[in-house]
Amino acid sequence: MLTFNLRLAAAPVAPSHLQYALAFSVQGTVPGIDVTLTFPGDASGTSLLALPAGLGGGGAYPNITSLRAASPRTAITDTDKPQVKRLTYPAGQPVSIAYRVIVTDAGQQMELSYSPEIERDHFSILGYQLFALPTGDADRPLAVETAWNSLPAGWTLADSHGVRQPYQAFSATPRTLQDSVWAAGGYRLLHTLIRGKPFYVAVRGEWPTPDAQILAAFSKIVGAERKFWHDDNFAYYIVVLNPQEGDEVGMSFPTSFYEAVPSKEGLGFMTQNILAHESFHAWLPKRIMPTATIATSGWFYEGFTVYYARLFQLRAGLISPQKYADDCNEVIRAYTSSPFRNISGPRFRYEAEHGFSDSRILMVAYQRGDLLAQHWNAQIRLVSHGQHSLDDVMLDLLRLAQAEHRPLQISDLVRVMRHYLHRDVSGDIQRYTEQGQTISPDPSALGPGATLVPTPTILFDLGYSSSGSLHLGKITGVETASNAYRAGLRDGQSYLDADFKNGDPAKEAHITVKDQAGQRVISYHPAGKTVLMPQYKLKPGIPNTLSASWFGIVQAPSH
After folding, report:
1. Cα(467)–Cα(359) distance, rounded to whole angstroms?
2. Sheet with 133-134: strands ordered across
3. Helix, strand, coil shares of the chain as percentages rounded to 5?
4. 382 shares its domain with 501
5. Same domain for 380 and 399?
6. Whole-angstrom Cα distance, residue 12 to residue 140?
């Protein structure tokens, strides 16, 4: 058993040394993680403790049980915030607090990007959901120790700080400790080097894609992004890949990435795209615009990341030009058919501050930025006769942030864009992100190898408010002229589950509801009206060298 040898000096105002003893166990039929936190007590004899909470910083998890004081003469009392507890103890003494983390139905139903998994044969959990923390500056330096005292034989431990290391000591901040992933169980540990630095993939479950292919694809994406940014400052990096039912989920942290996708589909565009998207955030916004918010700058850092996630897959040879065009077309369809595409900047900021009443409002930011990135890239290439592209803008922004040691603003983007485009793009930003005017796809965005043509397109129409129904727990917003209504979906039915592919009207939707007639699954095609919509078509007979040059693809010389 691993134990801590405590040598605690005089306590600082905010503890700088945190020790976590962790153990996996099954109590009855319920698996869980037992945690004991020990830290130097404050000279005042009082500290505030923030319990593990959701990604949004919301209320305390109902997954936290058996909270108790584990040090002598220590008391835990409530505060006016459910997730924060007050600790009192003899001044300056070491303080130990114990609790157990489990997964309950209530915990799974919370509206979070990711719910923890704690099963009899594995667990995967984020730092937000695992570590209680004494309150204080989120960026203060900490010395952290973690010790796993009990893991079943044969389990592989992998986390944001190392692999197969039951005991670890590392430097962190409260923010970076929370920005971490911890997993153990029947994971297969895959390893390679990316530009000389260790790269791991911890994968669990059965996949139709061989492990070697998963490792190769992931390392190509991450390697392409590091090469682009000229940044190899990654001593260690791990991807934790879990199978799950439902939509894909991905989150990026400083030294790790968590992804959960339907394993039956194997490695495909979406699985690769989530990794490419989230890992790109290591630079945009984190190094370039770290203080940016979705409310004010989301169209830039999220939308441009959509553009580059797709582009890096093409550059890495993981998708074809046709798949690249298909994904661009899907964005056009989703944006053009969105009832929120003309939302104004003030209204978008209001929605962001109040949690977005409909997920399609949030997606408008992604779509606007993607379309603007494509448009500006095409303009830069045309103005410079192919000598420059949006790549130069992004690299200049990173150099500017590093040189001036400050978080950049949208005004800096405007200034750098003027250098390459020879015009002021603030008018574009005002029209499309503030006034909410519709962005027309740029006919030249895909270069000389494609054209933009009006195409009969069936609109995706789910027929009810998905996010509203999820929030209320019952069906709401059913449109009487929709296939959903014709199939039997009605406002007020209990909303139990939904299975559909967002944006794909050809894939049947299955909505599980409960009403006076009992529980049942309502199935229909989420198809709306057919309209003429601009879509990119690849031109036959265009030399590969022309298209490759446009997209920044370096081709091996022919022999």
Report:
1. 6
2. 75-78, 84-88, 46-50, 133-134
3. 30, 30, 40
4. no
5. yes
6. 12
Report CA-CA distances (Å) from 421 to 228, 308, 425.
21, 19, 9
User: Considering the entire predicted model, what is its pTM?
Assistant: 0.85
CATH number at residue 86: 2.60.40.3650
Contacts of 157 (CB under 8 A, 6+ apart): 148, 151, 163, 164, 165, 166, 183, 184
Per the CB < 8 A criterion, the answer to whether 484 and 478 are in contact is: yes
Question: 101 with 176, same domain?
Answer: yes
Residues near 210 by Cβ (< 8 Å), separated by ≥ 6? Answer: none
What is the pLDDT at residue 272? 94
The 8-class DSSP code of residue 553 comes to -
Per the structure, the complete domain to which residue 501 belongs is given by 462-525
Residues 450 and 473 in one domain: no
Packing angle between helix 390-404 and helix 410-421, nearest 10 degrees? 130
Backbone angles phi, psi at 270, to 5 degrees: -65, -40
Strand order in the sheet with 17-27: 64-69, 94-101, 30-40, 17-27, 142-150, 167-172
Tokens standing for 43? 């000279």
Strands (E), 359-502: 450-460, 494-499
Residues 443 and 300 occupy one common structural domain: yes
Which tokens go with 57? Answer: 């910083």
Interval 73-99: pLDDT, tens: 999 999 999 889 999 999 989 999 999
Average pLDDT (530-539) is 94
